[in-house]
Design a protein that fits this description.
With 125 residues, the protein is mainly beta. Helix content is 9%, strand content 36%. The protein has two helices and eight strands; from the N terminus they run αβββαβββββ. The longest helix is centred in the N-terminal third of the chain and has 7 residues. The chain is globular.
């Protein structure tokens, strides 16, 4: 952990979140696809593989998860089984290299997102 003015238990609890990737359907409902953890896309939410502050997951190949076309996707943050503030950054890239000049990074901003548990975006696959 990096030094903070708070005791470790506060930081550990605040960032002890699970992340899941899903699609927002035509009714606005979130439809779970996969969990995202230190190994990338995962079928199950394994607490010992959860992303922590400063961690990054390997790339998740969206083309393997969704059919071609424009998709309304979201990364949902969960804390103790409930929706929670999204402390995450998502990099979208047409190739596995996040440093590719075509890559775009999305960040969650509390002041403009209507639902703070979801980092959502449209993506053309």
């Amino acid at each position: 952990l990096s030094p903070t003015p708070y005791e470790d238990s506060m930081t550990l609890d605040l960032f002890h979140n699970s992340f899941e990737l899903g699609e927002i359907d035509s009714t606005g409902e979130f439809r779970h696809t996969v969990w995202i953890d230190r190994g990338g896309a995962a079928e199950r939410n394994e607490p010992d593989r959860m992303l922590f502050a400063g961690d990054s997951s390997p790339g998740v190949e969206l083309n393997a998860l969704y059919p071609a076309g424009t998709r309304h996707l979201a990364v949902r943050s969960r804390h103790d089984g409930a929706d929670f503030y999204s402390f995450c950054r998502v990099t979208l890239s047409p190739v596995p290299d996040r440093r590719d000049p075509r890559a775009r990074t999305l960040e969650f901003f509390n002041d403009i997102e209507p639902d703070r548990a979801y980092l959502n975006f449209n993506c053309r696959l």
